[in-house]
Write a structure and sequence with these properties.
Elements lengths: L1 H14 L14 H17 L1 H11 L38 E6 L5 H15 L5 E5 L4 H14 L6 E5 L7 H11 L6 E5 L1 H4 L8 H18 L2 E7 L11 H5 L2 E8 L2 E5 L7 E2 L8 E12 L2 E10 L9 E2 L2 H11 L5 H7 L4 H13 L3 E3 L6 E3 L5 E2 L1
Parallel strand pairs: 1-5, 1-6, 2-3, 2-4, 4-5, 11-14
Antiparallel strand pairs: 6-7, 6-8, 7-9, 9-10, 12-13
Helix pairs in contact: 1-2, 2-3
Amino acid sequence: MSIHYAIAYITLCLASSPVPAPEKGRVGNDKDYSLLMSLYEQNTRFGVEAVRLSWEALKKTVPHLDKRPRYINANALKDIKIPRYAPGGYPIYLHGMNVLVGARGGGKSFVALDASAKIAQSNPDKIVIYTAGEGLPSYVTRWEAWLKHYNTTLDNLIFWDGALQMLNPTELTEFVDEFKPQKPVFVIVDTVARAMTGFNENDTQQMGEFVANCETVMRELGCGMLLVHHIGRAGVMRGSTALDGGADSVMVLNRDGQTIVLHNSFDKGGKNRFQVEAQSIALRFESVDITIDGKNENGAVVLPTEMPHEATEITLSPAQNKIIEVIQSGATTSQAIINATTLGRSTIFDNLKKLESAGLITRHPTTSEYQMISPKGATQ
């Protein structure tokens, strides 16, 4: 049991501070006890980060302790560090895998840039890396607009020019080796499609490898990630559900004119692994006039705003009433709805879109199933 105690104690020192002193009677030999005391003193005086640096250097000398225990007493679970939201007001885990999904042109990159800048601002001693898969030019005015609006400067947000190919082992290794000494706190991949060029995002195995490589980057760099992804023409998250399965938080972005709404709840297609699903967030675009190389330019930032008001009464057509009836009876896929009615396919799909726009039904981005949101207020 002495080795298991030592391993568990090292794990605790690497996760939280302060920690109790190691119990000598539970350690097998003086060498292991001296190591634990050294880590304890560093944890007490300098915190978790110092312990992590020391352990990286020391663990090669004690390979029998360089293991993760496979079991833990339930009463010790409270000592395990769980992910927390990053600063900025978004349901984004600072040390987790997050996905922001939305339609083309919906404003995903504006939100991702705002989130990354606020994380960088709150962690001035660490860098944030934004991999710009769709090229740097589109960020020029956005970044200058953000700086001007908040009347600030930032030196620790780094742009990686072009996509980081997550399924290219050589490029991934070079990326980790490049930034590991700088200890980034967060990495943004914009977009998933650009980051797996030449691979099939619908292939479960390939998307699973993508997710696994994201986890490798997070582990090696000690950072969190935000993956910016697209919703397809069918209105659901593109690609294999392996991405949704691997995510700690999923935010679904919907845009109506100049208003963006981010949903984290399951019934809106979102996901939250560690906390109760966050409330939906409404954002608006604010125009910012800037000057670049002596020329007047126009940029924009996203700012919090009030949630759009939902209609209190909606008049439904006979076809729409029939569709709602079959959804409530258990027909949740488009094919099941078609089979349960005598309506034509085009009529079904046209009215499904209208019911979604009216806020009466929603379609989950990964399962493609329709669900009722609130049939209240609808009249025949």
